[in-house]
Target: Arginine biosynthesis bifunctional protein ArgJ
Amino acid sequence: MANNLTAAFDIVADGSITTPRGFQAGGLHCGLKKTTRHDLGAIICEVPASAAGVYTTNVFQAAPILVTKDSIGEEGLLRGVIVNSGNANACTGKQGEADAFEMRAKFAEAIGVPAAHIAVASTGVIGENLKMDRVRDGIAKLPAKLAADVQGAADFNQAILTTDLVEKTACVRLELDGQVVHIAGAAKGSGMIHPNMATMLGFVTTDAAIGSAELTTLLRQATDLTFNMITVDGDTSTNDMLVAMASGLAGNATLTPAHPGWDAFAAGLRYVCEVLAKAIARDGEGATKLVEVQVRGAVSDDSAQAIAKTVIGSSLVKSAVFGADANWGRIIAAVGRAGQPVNPETVDIRLGDIVTLEQSRPIGFDEDAALEYLKGDTVVIHVDLHNGEGAATAWGCDLTYDYVRINAAYRT
Amino acid sequence: MANNLTAAFDIVADGSITTPRGFQAGGLHCGLKKTTRHDLGAIICEVPASAAGVYTTNVFQAAPILVTKDSIGEEGLLRGVIVNSGNANACTGKQGEADAFEMRAKFAEAIGVPAAHIAVASTGVIGENLKMDRVRDGIAKLPAKLAADVQGAADFNQAILTTDLVEKTACVRLELDGQVVHIAGAAKGSGMIHPNMATMLGFVTTDAAIGSAELTTLLRQATDLTFNMITVDGDTSTNDMLVAMASGLAGNATLTPAHPGWDAFAAGLRYVCEVLAKAIARDGEGATKLVEVQVRGAVSDDSAQAIAKTVIGSSLVKSAVFGADANWGRIIAAVGRAGQPVNPETVDIRLGDIVTLEQSRPIGFDEDAALEYLKGDTVVIHVDLHNGEGAATAWGCDLTYDYVRINAAYRT
Model:
């Protein structure tokens, strides 16, 4: 799919969230993290941007989720988003809500826009109230740190990380109505990553002209095929949020499904989301490699999705991949417990190009070649059910000693 | 619940699967395991025993499952069960089926009973055909190893283990119609343990007089509250099987729901299953402790079960318990993604007696006391939703470096 998608747009290798026209970004250290890394960041837009949000499905939704829903719900417009890391402001009661609304109000005031034009996002430890004195100080200093350049984007990217090891960004451009349109994104992941908006924050900027409703439609479609198809550990956080802002400054005719460039824009947006989602999976806590599961031949795409997610989420499969063990038995066991229609006689399994199971029967394969393949930094597991036309792809990572180390003492 | 249950029966501390009258057991090393531990075992009954089986829900069911269903399906009677470890005989095609049927036939012949009175169980690596020459040799030697004593039971218990570290057994007795009735069990677990009959083999013997249909009813009820409430890693194997045999030699009046001792027998059976299930959870691959999750105040027992299983299955919760980190935020996040009705304002969470969350608000607690509690070998997580009368208990274990080590190279 990815190859077909890229035909519609170009990848901007050195692009960032400040590449689309109208956006500035930045970050600083205000003291919420114990390290000296940035822990407060913002993206702002020089005009009211059409906005869209996708949120965690967890029953317990952190205070910032409430605030962002409120802001985007108002007019579908945003002038900016403020983000802190180091503290999730989740399960923090009325004080937490007050703090999140205060973050919105203070930042809106600092950049001179209406409060309802600001989104708020937080990530980090659950159940502790924000040190608001530090947040207030940080917000006061933040506007001076915002810039429309690569450094501003880099500072923002650092400010949203928790246990992430690398920054996650993507940028593409395409032509609409003779104008160059950019779509860019930045994201953080790391643990508690699972379908339906797991612990991740994602931010998409674009200079395309598109309404809030249309942007929401496309963002949800893209999310279902990308962010909702990754898992690190099956846990879904209270704070997940993906926010998109469209400045409209590219000058294209406003995008609707009737616009000839609709599909190309949708493909570009999906590509940006897919790059970010795969980067989150590859950088899952303790991960040493990206694992991709491609399921085809299922009775439907939904069924293929369920199977792909079950395989990618299996601790036994993940451990085997970490150990470079071609243990296809665990793969088929995961396929078989996904609760989906499967013909137990017709399943093929390949690891990369190495066929290990054909029509549900093990066939001899070169163990050395399999070991070599599984030692690589990307492992693709192909499952063909020969049971229909449904297909899906999911991404995850291996389960390692470091996952346990990181999560055995996250708070300390 | 457990305290109430034990009122109806006595625990037989030194009891085993050969304690109920009529049963012999044994085991030997035939060469399926690379170590010298036993890998072939059997339980036999001197009379045709009423039989019941509960099986894996995995779409891919190993050949022995097919054979055992066939045997119990015939007349609801068993004279014995033969079990091998070291090879699961799963995903082994027609040859695997033929091998499983041959195991049944050969063992039936060796002890002089009809083939359909023998159940077969296998556990170990998936996708490799059994070394049937070794199995045949082992079966020929096995009858001489069977005994009605503790040693016979111990040999059997060893023969069913894979990566298990300890043998898992339980035995109770109760009085029915003036006769002493025993119920005993043995089980193996270790990885791939999840609700709905995960990688486990369980064997229950009793000298109670009870029909196959009634035994099946009680075995399923007990399984739903015990074996189906444990998880090690969320994976469900192709081979899980719980088989019960009732010799009837205790001489009680045949048990039916109308018998005054029905509830007591059911309680005893459930207790045996609960002891085995908890032992499997505690001995989960790499586990250092047993984790028990008690959910109450849910809208229904089913809802409580779903929530308890989600919490017990959370890799983040499991890692935190391993690290003795009182990270209740991960517990509430797991509660919130269980897909069940939860009032986000009314949740209490306790770790043992240490209250960490009240009405969904964190309350200050003694971190040192929590650390001390979490360092113990049993951790009980209490979740009260204050949202109804539903309650459930689930068991699991912590996620450790050793889980990863064991599963990164299981086949090698």
